[in-house]
Design a protein that fits this description.
389 residues, alpha/beta, 8-stranded parallel barrel, 6-stranded antiparallel sheet, globular
């Protein structure tokens, strides 16, 4: 899939782990089932170095510190492929939908960046991209926003150059469909018929109510109907798709390629992996290719500043989600990131990943709780802590 040498050897030598205090959103946020409150889902950032001094870095969870680093800071030398394979099966008893398997996905991203830096290449180019931009759609629309704020945001997204926009439905835990339908009408009236409007229920309904809502919203021509019922309730998903006849989108809760085949078999028309939850980065391309083969729609969510790496490998109609309530505060934690312009993200011409953590800025804003250093040759003294901010 990726045109890389998976037999390159890596010896991990050091890691630097930056633990964060909670990073606030611009204003309180809620979707139909209660996420994500007053803070963006950021826990930490990790930089991992090989014995040659090359490094990879990404946002991560505390599981990186607990599960991954102790397993790789051993002084052993293995190929990229062997490191991944060994850890994948070591973590299998946590389950292939677990947080631990997602931590492995973050290590995979880091290893890919190390290999790209060895070639002195931007990561997206190393992975085979022929362009330096990614096409996007823009989402937002908290259920805490009043109707005027919602419409104002959606109109602004269109003015920024986005042809596809998305907002949340499922008001009052799915019980206030009247409000959702009115909001859809207002947005459609404001942006016109040439703009795609997607709606996201965040799994709030049962199959019966999801079909009722689909019937009511149909006249406003939603581009897709995202996660109307529980993401693992495959038979309800199949029922909603068959009874509503509407384009159904799923994928954010799944961790590997195999689950997406099951979604497609149940009638899901739009497969939507989330980059920060995948167990292997190459699965993003496998899902993309599967969609191309089956004539399904494909898009990808997650932290868009990282996701732009893979968006550069997608076509114009294979979009990344730019979820502004999360994207904006995360972007403010970076010194370097892709440029948002006219419905696209343009990646910087730098070696490795297109993002760099603003350590000094995080420190000055009181967001950096601590920094830990982990060395492969000091297994009994792994955690040297600098400061508590």
């Amino acid at each position: 899939m990726f045109p890389i040498d998976v037999n390159q050897e890596i010896t991990f030598s050091k890691a630097v782990y930056y633990n964060f205090h909670p990073v606030k959103v611009k204003k309180p946020w809620r979707d139909a089932t209660g996420g994500f409150g007053n803070f963006v889902p950021l826990q930490a950032w990790v930089e991992i170095y090989d014995s040659e001094g090359y490094s990879g870095a990404t946002f991560c969870s505390k599981g990186m510190l607990e599960n991954i680093l102790p397993a790789i800071m051993t002084g052993e030398t293995k190929t990229y492929a062997d490191w991944y394979e060994a850890l994948y099966w070591k973590l299998r008893n946590f389950g292939f939908q677990s947080g631990q398997i997602v931590d492995l996905g973050q290590l995979d991203l880091i290893m890919l960046e190390i290999l790209a830096k060895r070639k002195s290449m931007p990561l997206h180019r190393y992975l085979g991209a022929k362009k330096d931009w990614a096409a996007c759609y823009k989402g937002g629309g908290s259920l805490l926003s009043d109707d005027d704020d919602l419409v104002s945001d959606m109109v602004r997204y269109v003015e920024e150059g986005y042809k596809t926009i998305k907002f949340k439905v499922g008001s009052d835990w799915g019980r206030n469909m009247d409000r959702d339908i009115l909001r859809m009408k207002k947005v459609r009236d404001a942006v016109g018929n040439d703009i795609e409007i997607a709606i996201d229920g965040n799994q709030v309904w049962n199959a019966k109510d999801a079909v009722i809502f689909a019937d009511r919203v149909r006249k406003y021509n939603p581009a897709w109907y995202e996660e109307p019922v529980h993401s693992h309730d495959m038979n309800s998903i199949k029922s909603v798709r068959e009874q509503s006849g509407m384009v159904i989108g799923y994928g954010e809760s799944m961790r590997n390629y195999f689950a997406f085949e099951t979604y497609a078999e149940k009638g899901v028309d739009h497969l939507m992996p989330l980059v920060g939850r995948m167990s292997k980065m190459e699965d993003l391309l496998k899902i993309r290719d599967y969609c191309r083969e089956k004539g399904l729609r494909f898009s990808s969510g997650g932290t868009i500043w990282t996701n732009a790496i893979f968006g550069a490998l997608y076509d114009e109609n294979e979009l990344l989600e730019n979820h502004e309530p999360m994207t904006q505060p995360i972007g403010e934690c970076l010194t370097v990131k892709p440029e948002e312009k006219n419905g696209r993200l343009y990646l910087p011409d730098i070696i490795g990943s297109p993002i760099r953590l603003d350590v000094q800025g995080m420190e000055s804003r009181g967001l950096l709780e601590s920094v830990r250093y982990i060395y492969a040759d000091k297994l009994n003294q792994q955690f040297a802590v600098r400061g508590a901010y």
